[in-house]
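Possible regression after last week's pipeline update?

I re-ran a chain I had predicted before the update to compare outputs. Posting the input and the new output here so someone can diff against the archived version. Not blocking, just want to make sure nothing changed silently.
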Amino acid sequence: MRQKTEPFTGTHALANFIDCDNKMSNLSSNDIQRFIESISENHGLKVLGGYYHDFDSKGALTGVCVLAESHISVHTWPELNYATVDVFLCNYNKDNTLIVSELLDEISDFFKAKTVNSKLIKR
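New output (post-update):
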């Protein structure tokens, strides 16, 4: 049986930000929401909405920004100086791989991560 070739519809990045700045404990979900929406719009992406939540542990939060092009999610563990980020941009008319990489760099800078482990997946 012949295998069908999967179409390329987008780039999905998964990243772990390690040894983030200790000021992470001063962040709120509102801070992350403003930042993520701002950088998304700066890259010409269309923000459709999102959901952000602060946990009891100061600076611990989760958030998802829903984009017309897909999504960005952020989860933080300030007690570990650690954050995880998921960026997926899909558009079969345009390759957004460069924008995905730029968004990861900007988010890494925001958290002042000393180490970034990331994986790009073509979907």
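Follow-up from reviewer: compared with the archived run. Residues 10 and 95 are 7 Å apart (CA to CA). Marking as no regression found.
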